[in-house]
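Now for today's protein.

===
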Amino acid sequence: MEALASTEKLLQDKVNKTAKEKQQHLEAVEVETRQLLQKLFPKVCLPSNMSHSEWICGFEKMAKEYLREASGSEDVKAMEQKLKEAEEMHILLQLECEKYKSVLAETEGILQRLQRSVEEEESKWKIKVEESQKELKQMHSSVISLEHEVERLKEEIKEVETLKKEREHLESELEKAEIERSTYVSEVRELKTQLNETLSKLKVDQNERQKVAGDLPKAQESLASLEREIGKVVGDANVIENSDVCTE
């Protein structure tokens, strides 16, 4: 697009420059033609603000009128020859102008074809730009969807981090509970050992108690025999009193 625009501008500048140069050259030739005809017919005067074609037509009529009036003069033939030469020069100038117009028209045709080519390229690029804009819009929608997905994943990551912290806290509590359980197991073992020792002692005491219980009838029998002997010696009253005391 930039290259086409640059080429178009360059050609337009060249066309403008060529047209300007041709116009200047044409104006210079027209001025020379007027000056030459004015020298040939100094008595023929026309306004200078007329267009060149109008001025030439008017000058031709006035020159012919002047020649008719001066037909008896000796210089008529020379003047007619000069007028003929001026007309031939005018024809040559017209042919050159036509040539310049043809070149200018051809250049304008090239410029128009180039302009059409530029417009076609612009149309193609416009279609491509519209397609690119559609793709860009789709990409923008995809980006928005991805951003929403990223936000959702961030929230999930936060939840996972929270669960991770809770799990670490629970693991720490479980570790503490395991330590306490180990402590309780040790204490239970100690208590169990003490209980076993106590049970052993109780068993020994029970054995001794059973032994004492087994010896008790013999002791009671010996005690009763002793009481009878004492009763015989001391008397009935003292025996009863002593018997109460011994029983106690």
